[in-house]
Design brief:
Length: 580
């Protein structure tokens, strides 16, 4: 959770040492609250009292700052008085005082955020929590409701998460190149408070082998069970079926499954299931979210996904596979009316649709990832609400047209698109096709992120991408154009692009001016050996923060260092060059 520092506090009646993670701020707490203004005179004395009661502990200070910022009326004296009264304690020890302040921050949360915060208690200690999957769980639990700002529940979830981060109750442990939060963590002390509150309020029950032996019985099982370190879930013999959510790193005992007929959440990302399809059909008819691992296709050849397609309430499917052997996704899954996210760790084929399938709009937002998917008229009608798509083409024939990619631009809600062709991509490998035509198809104008990996995309077609009005992240790696290329960028394109990653092999000329990429923050270049320098116009972009070079010619590195000197001279001290 970060580098540890030791804070020693001396008072007339106590002396204690407390270990906390290092919490860095770009500004002081006063600047965080009041900006460039000074603290109002009527709050100065109260502010000093509140600060003294924080005992100099970084964690309590930043949490109180978050409490003030989230109040909406932080200039009112009554608010500061209330905080001071709630955290005042003359006799308490420093750990007790710290816990008291942190509990107050939870008590003051609105109900919608309390549920979201307590959910963190289900995850292991020091676990980096994937933000997108956390929000999927919140949606499946029914915590989120449409707001005036957005009817999309996932967007509402992002807002709730940002609120928790702003209150300093959770830590942003990883961010994407576009600045969006990808993973979160939580301070150990806050996690303990989270677990305690979750148990006290009957929100979540932790099952552990130290608390329950084989003969234990839980008379009033909690709505949510977390079994992360238990040797066998068979230790739990429930007497009713009140459990709705299970977080598990071990497999459910077959004798327990009849007690979970009302189960809606099954989050077992590290559990290998061999006969899950049979269990699902007979038991988990109310399931909304499932995450599991499948490592033996022969034990359940394609049956697992066919079984899942019959569950009427399912919203999220996350399948982690330890093999790649051409698993097929039944077309029926794409037509499930409540399914929002289908995530496969390995690429899968989609079976041909049967004549009985009813073609109509679905709620599917995430499709990750499919092989040789054909964008027929019917597929476009089904996927009209899709926001994230990852597809792989393995050289099926040697013609793009067979995949109906001319229909791709009609996915007008699509925000993230990744297209891969014949390249090593994390968990799978395809041999690159000997010859494949260049990409000449339009993209949806709603795209914010575009990644082309191994796709023959010629530089002369860059206007197709540059005209996308919302594009913020662009990655083109190994574009498979084996001829010398030139590119002169144009004003009025790439207006919102922040992150630009390119392979520049066979690239001999690049002309760019400052106004051509006005929002660029990060430039990542790979295999630059045919040009001698980075265009100086890039060095004049005020927003530029990073140039990252991979396997580039020494003269290109020298030109990047020159840009760094220029940026620093202009006062942009945050600018940096990285070389790999």
């Amino acid at each position: 959770m970060g580098k540890a520092i030791r804070v020693k506090v001396n008072r007339s009646r106590l002396s204690a040492t407390f270990s906390l993670p290092l919490i860095r701020y770009s500004s002081s707490p006063e600047e965080k609250i009041f900006g460039q203004e000074s603290c109002p005179l009527h709050l100065v004395e109260l502010g000093k009292k509140v600060a003294r009661n924080c005992r100099g502990l970084p964690l309590t200070i930043v949490v109180v700052v978050g409490l003030l910022l989230s109040s909406g009326n932080m200039m009112e004296e009554e608010l500061w008085e209330s905080i001071f009264e709630n955290i005042s304690s003359i006799e308490s020890t420093i750990p007790e005082q710290c816990s008291k302040i942190l509990r107050l921050s939870y008590d003051w949360l609105p109900l919608r955020l309390k549920q979201c915060f307590l959910y963190i208690a289900a995850f292991p200690e020091d676990f980096e929590i994937d933000v997108s999957k956390m929000i999927m769980l919140w949606v499946a639990e029914g915590f989120l409701k449409p707001s005036k700002q957005s009817t999309c529940l996932e967007d509402v979830g992002k807002g709730c998460l940002e609120d928790l981060v702003n209150r300093n109750l959770v830590l942003a442990s990883k961010k994407g190149v576009d600045g969006n939060l990808l993973a979160l963590g939580i301070h150990d002390i806050l996690r303990k408070i989270c677990i305690t509150k979750a148990e006290q309020e009957g929100f979540l029950h932790h099952v552990s082998s130290t608390r329950n032996d084989c003969n234990d019985t839980i008379e009033n099982p909690k709505r949510r069970l977390s079994a992360l370190n238990t040797q066998s879930f068979g230790e739990l013999h429930t007497q009713d079926s009140s459990t709705r959510s299970i977080f598990s790193e071990i497999e459910l005992d077959a004798t327990c499954t009849p007690n979970f007929r009302r189960l809606s959440i099954l989050n077992s990302p590290y559990v290998t299931w061999l006969d899950l399809s049979e269990v699902l059909i007979s038991t988990f008819v109310n399931l909304r979210y499932i995450s599991f691992t499948l490592d033996n296709i022969m034990s359940c050849p394609n049956g697992i996904l066919a079984s899942l397609s019959k569950l009427p309430n399912l919203e999220t499917i996350i399948a982690n596979m330890t093999y790649y052997k051409g698993l097929q996704v039944p077309y029926e899954i794409l037509t499930m009316q409540k399914l929002r996210h289908l995530i496969m760790s390995h690429p899968c084929y989609v079976s041909d649709p049967s004549k009985t399938i009813i073609i109509k709009e679905s709620d599917l937002q995430t499709l990750d990832r499919l092989i040789n998917f054909i964008f027929t008229e019917d597929a476009i009608k089904i996927l009209v609400n899709l926001k994230q798509l990852k597809v792989v083409f393995d050289g099926y024939g040697d013609n793009w047209d067979v995949f109906n990619l001319n229909n791709l631009f009609r996915l007008q809600n699509l925000e993230e698109l990744e297209v891969s062709l014949g390249l090593h991509n994390h968990l799978f490998w395809f041999d690159s096709p000997k010859s494949f035509p260049t990409w000449n198809y339009a993209f949806p104008i709603s795209l914010k992120k575009l990644s082309l990996q191994g796709v023959p995309f010629p530089w002369e077609n860059m206007t197709i991408i540059g005209s996308l009005p919302c594009l913020q992240v662009l990655e083109i790696v190994e574009n498979n154009i084996k001829r010398v290329s030139e590119w002169t960028s144009m004003e009025g394109q790439f207006l919102r692009l922040k992150y630009f990653c390119y392979s520049l092999d066979y690239f001999v000329k690049w002309e760019v001016e400052k106004d051509h990429l006005p929002s660029l923050e990060s430039l990542i270049l790979r295999n630059v050996v045919w040009i001698d320098e980075i265009p100086c116009g890039l060095g004049e972009i005020d927003s530029l923060q990073l140039i990252e070079l991979h396997d580039c010619h020494e003269s290109v590195v020298n030109s990047a260092m020159g840009i760094q000197w220029q940026q620093h001279e202009n006062g942009n001290d945050a600018f940096r060059v990285k070389r790999f």
